[in-house]
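Sorry to interrupt, but I need a hand with the structure work. I would like you to pick a protein and set down its sequence and fold. Please put the record directly below this note.
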Amino acid sequence: MSLYARPVSKRDYYEVLGVPRGAGPDELKKAFRALARELHPDRNPDDPAAEEAFKEAAEAYQVLSDPAQRERYDRFGHAAFEAGGGPGPADFGGIGEIFEGLIGEIIGGRRRKRQGEDVELELTVSFEEAALGAEKRVAVAKPVPCATCEGSGAKPGTAVRTCGQCDGKGEVRFQRRLFSTNRKCAACNGSGKKIETPCKTCRGGGLVEGEETLAVRIPPGVEDGATRTIRGAGAPGPGGNGDLLVTIRIEAHPLFQRDGADVLCTVPVSFPQAVLGDTLEVPTLEGSVRMKLPPATQSGRMFRLRGKGIPVYGGMGKGDQLVTILVEVPEKVSRKQRKLIAELADELGTETHPQRQSFLTKLKELLE
């Protein structure tokens, strides 16, 4: 017995679709799409049981997706339609419409002519360009109309006839029992035309490999790996051009790192600057700014420059710049400097280093 064999008595419509009785319109549609993919004749050739199972699912969806019919069904069950007032088998001409409207685009029932192929490329931009936005010009390698025949595919001076198999549509209707779908015409390979004498340059294809320069807008705040889609900038096709898919790659910056919409920056300072305080020149995306460093600043302390970060993607404000202070210890000192530092250490003692004093106290307690 086939997996899709339909029982003699009608099953509950909710059971057919595999949804609870309180399912909403989106849940019903999702369940029917899944069944339609599974039961489609192209996936189950010469299987009448699968066709019957799809008919059962479509019937269930037709009733439950209509508020008035669903209310009748919920009250009276299948008896609500026994007197000819519902979607019995003889009244099921709407299956094709449901089929094409819901899942035609998923499993090949497109009515319009085939579009050209999409073209993909990667575009590397600087940290600043990704943060603040820019416009870049890119050279796109893709098929372009043949200059010799102006894209017709025919030798100049010869005629191009309409394909008699598909009447110029590029597709033919394929009927299988209950279902009908559109398929690319094999006689003209979907072009809708017949060429008697092909162009020698493009060999009748109408296209040659070429290059086109386009402007690509980089929006402020774009993330690394984001894809920009430029409609109609892809390869040509009978139903129009495909799209250009541009993947953004962001170069590393020597000073900045990114955390969402915030910019991270580490600024080294000397020991005297950290102890006495100073005014620092801090780089930002929009130029240097002056930042006050208070006395007794510890290494690792972070300061926030509000609004100096990256615009939030979509135009909802800006992030901040987070500046981390790094107190730099000299790698080389002279004899005189060493003596002065030793004198300073004796003069400061441990009372001026509370964190060090706390550490030593805890270490002593641990050892005891």
